[in-house]
């Protein structure tokens, strides 16, 4: 059975394979009690978000993960949407939102994980 880190790495790779840009995987398990991993992804459009959401949903179904919270409709004004999988939260952000919120800097105490070594 896969552990949460393995699933997070596989999801990060999936986001990258889906043409997500600058995918980052952060282990923040020591910093809070509500999740263990952030996957941060830059997306290019609403259609791109929908495609990545579908990939994450399909992965979750086959790997004992439940999508707890998501904004399923991304309007043209939405720059940041997330997929809450419990121990893993995927942040799908426009380039502008990612630059503005700078989650990697905000959560700098977390460990950046090389997800290419699954």
Q: Class by helix and strand content?
A: alpha+beta
Strands in their spatial order, largest beta sheet: 3-4-5-2-1-6
State the helical fraction: 25-40%
**Main beta sheet strand tally, sense and closure:** 6 strands, mixed
Number of helices: 4
Strand content: 15-25%
Poorly predicted runs are none
The counted number of beta strands is: 6
Overall residue-averaged pLDDT value: 90
Sketch the topology as an H/E string, one letter per element: HEEHEEEHHE
Shape: globular
Radius of gyration based on Cα positions: 13 Å
The termini sit apart by: 14 Å
Task: Kindly describe this structure.
The two termini are 14 Å apart. The protein has 118 residues and is α+β, with helices and mostly antiparallel strands. It has a 6-stranded mixed beta sheet. The radius of gyration is 13 Å and the shape is globular. It contains 4 helices and 6 strands. The longest helix has 17 residues, at 46-62.
Concise account of the structure shown:
The longest helix is centred in the middle third of the chain and has 17 residues, at about 45-60.
């Amino acid at each position: 059975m896969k552990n949460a880190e393995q699933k997070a790495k596989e999801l990060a790779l999936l986001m990258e394979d889906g043409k997500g840009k600058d995918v980052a995987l952060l282990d923040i398990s020591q910093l809070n009690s509500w999740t263990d991993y952030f996957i941060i992804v830059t997306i290019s459009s609403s259609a791109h978000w929908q495609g990545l959401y579908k990939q994450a949903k399909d992965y979750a179904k086959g790997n004992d993960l439940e999508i707890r919270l998501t904004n399923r409709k991304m309007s043209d004004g939405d720059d940041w949407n997330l997929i809450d999988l419990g121990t893993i939260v995927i942040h799908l952000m426009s380039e502008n939102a990612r630059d503005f919120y700078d989650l990697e800097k905000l959560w700098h105490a977390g460990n950046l994980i090389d997800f290419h070594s699954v």
